[in-house]
Design goal:
602 residues, alpha+beta, Aldehyde Ferredoxin Oxidoreductase Protein, subunit A, domain 2, 24 helices, 16 strands
């Protein structure tokens, strides 16, 4: 089977920074129809090639960048790529996905994946130019911000290259550090810290190749159907007009907008930080990633001192706004800028700010421990001061940038309101007001996550009662499998607001020629890929005790809004989910189910 005729390059670029060695290997061709690529390829490589017990910041941890078969094609949003590693924040399997323009450039250079191991004894960058790759010194880039690094690299190499870079938090191996392609980020889970632990400041890529699909005529027909479905979707149209923030007011009405470190589910100034408000006062231009017909990205007017951003996204707005009690849009823009400029995950950074504000108001932490800063909910100046220290990794920012779980270990009395799962800060949907989402947060392999199968439709579509637990295990399982397929193909989720899995199935089968007789075969592939990620976590000691939520969700009733008095009844949902997945009562996949999925545990 020639994978190069099936939308693949059939090459993995492998770089050992300890030895300064570079070589290539072919894809695991027999496994590819079972895992597809993207998330499936990353999970397969991490699970089968990395030994257990590896310290996430050690040279032995693998940092895997991967494309899917649809990356670099003409499919809608085909610029997507991912990164898989063991997270320093959680100790779990961790994958993040990114738009922008780097992913298809790696594909055009001739690689389906890049696997980085080892660690250099000096700051370096990796330069990939079609079939040529080399490790170069990067000491002159040390300490530079994300934009300064990208600008310097464009001066040195030109504008026809794409870069992945880290900022000071990544260099100093902080858990909140992400990896950035301009304003797009592999943000969650601390991938930037792993890259920093390898002394790898940047990865530059340029490629002049192309992607050859298996059946061109069938692919063109599938492509027309996919684009038609995307164009006809009112939800996609709204995304293009008001960006991802368009949902903020809806979530607020549903009582699921986390406010003041998840103490409540409604924010009194939601209209001030809505998509309509940002469009009216700040946005000046749309931005689209490679191959994207939606253009959900928005550039803001520069503020008085010249600060402008691409965004803010909904998750960032929640984290820097309602979660901190802040309704001032310019403050949210500045907080977003600090994260993008220096290389921090906005969700986790906002989670830390809200947590520290509550700690201070409860007397758990003092201004003396925070370099004289007195953080309170709604205080814009203190939020900016704290985040600047985190971004520059200075003073109290050195330990705040390690995240909520690390802070809670220093201050155990704050643990009941430390809003994280497995060490990853919670995203922008209050689990006490959305029970299917609560289950997704608890079980997701990378920690609290809305992107690994959370059935957010329970808040939007009215198809399910968000406060009910009945049927949520099956709903989550189905969404989880669906999202694993999208991530393995490496397309953005947003076309799925118009396209369904059948239309994605048509694209995948035409591009790869793989024999997936029905859509159900793709759903099974999605479950297989998710199970591989689960097996990695099980091997590292994770099971049912870690599939949990903070005390604020499990035992402290919500106050106010539609979810008033609610807690998350997690145990029955976990029991049902494990049963549906064919796992035992401890959340460990059974040999029988592994056999049915054609997974043979090593």
């Amino acid at each position: 089977m020639d994978l190069r005729q099936r939308a693949y390059c059939d090459q993995i670029l492998r770089v050992d920074l300890s030895r300064g060695a570079i070589h290539t290997t072919p894809l695991p061709d027999k496994a590819m129809p079972m895992i597809l690529g993207g998330k499936g390829l990353g999970a397969h490589l991490l699970y089968t090639e990395q030994k257990s017990g590896v310290d996430p910041l050690s040279p032995e941890n693998h940092l895997i960048f991967h494309n899917g078969p649809l990356t670099g094609t003409t499919a809608p949003t085909a610029g997507r790529f991912g990164c898989t590693t063991r997270s320093p924040a959680t100790g779990t399997y961790s994958d993040s996905y990114c738009g922008g323009y780097w992913g298809q450039m790696l594909k055009y250079a001739g690689y389906d994946a890049l696997v980085v191991t080892g660690a250099s004894d000096q700051p370096v960058m990796l330069v990939i130019d079609d079939d040529y790759a080399e490790i170069r010194p990067a000491g002159h880039l040390l300490g530079l911000s994300i934009t300064a690094t990208a600008h310097r690299l464009r001066e040195e190499f030109g504008h026809d290259w794409q870069s992945l870079v880290i900022g000071p938090p990544g260099e100093k191996q902080r858990n909140l550090a992400g990896i950035f392609n301009d304003s797009r980020a592999l943000a969650r889970g601390g991938g930037g810290a792993v890259m920093g632990s390898k002394n790898l400041k940047a990865i530059l890529t340029r490629g002049n190749g192309y992607v050859q699909v298996y059946d061109k005529e069938k692919y063109q027909r599938a492509l027309q159907l996919a684009f038609r479905a995307v164009r006809m979707s009112s939800e996609v149209t709204l995304l293009g007009r008001e960006g991802t923030i368009n949902i903020l007011e809806i979530i607020n009405v549903m009582g699921a907008l986390p406010t003041r470190n998840f103490q409540r589910g409604q924010f009194e100034a939601a209209d001030e930080v809505s998509g309509a408000a940002f469009r009216a006062h700040h946005w000046v231009k749309e931005y689209a990633c490679f191959g994207c017909p939606i253009a959900c990205g928005k550039y803001t007017h520069p503020l008085e001192d010249g600060v402008f951003i691409e965004g803010p996204e909904y998750e960032t707005t929640f984290a820097m706004g309602p979660n901190c009690g802040i309704g001032d849009r310019e403050t949210i823009i500045r907080l977003n800028w600090y994260c993008d400029e220096y290389g921090l995950d906005t969700i986790s950074a906002g989670g830390v700010l809200g947590f520290v504000m509550e700690m201070f108001e409860r007397g758990v932490i003092t201004a003396g421990e925070l370099d004289g800063i007195q953080p309170r909910f709604g205080d814009c100046a203190s939020a900016l001061a704290l985040l600047e220290k985190m971004a520059k990794v200075e003073g109290c920012g050195e330990w705040l940038a390690q995240g909520v779980a690390a802070i809670a270990r220093q201050y155990p009395q704050a643990d009941p309101f430390a809003m994280h799962v497995k060490g990853l800060e919670m995203p922008a949907y209050h689990p006490s007001a959305a029970k299917g989402t609560a289950l997704a947060y608890a079980v997701s392999e990378r920690g609290a996550c809305h992107l690994r199968g959370a059935p957010l439709g329970e808040l939007f579509s009215g198809a399910a009662d968000p406060l009910a637990i009945e049927g949520k295990a099956q709903l989550f399982r189905d969404h989880q499998a669906d999202r694993a397929v999208w991530n393995s193909a490496c397309l953005c989720y947003f076309p799925s607001y118009g396209m369904n899995l059948k239309e994605l199935w048509q694209l995948i089968t035409a591009a790869t020629g793989f024999d997936y007789p029905t859509v159900a075969d793709l759903e099974l592939l999605g479950e297989r890929v998710s199970t591989l990620a689960r097996l990695f976590n099980v091997r590292e000691g994770f099971s049912r005790p870690q599939d949990t939520l903070p005390a604020r969700n499990l035992s402290i009733p919500m106050t106010g809004g539609p979810a008033d008095g609610q807690v998350v009844e997690l145990t029955p949902m976990l029991d049902e989910y494990y049963r549906i997945m064919g796992w035992d009562e401890n959340g460990i996949p059974s040999p029988k189910r592994l056999h049915q999925l054609n997974i043979y545990d090593r």
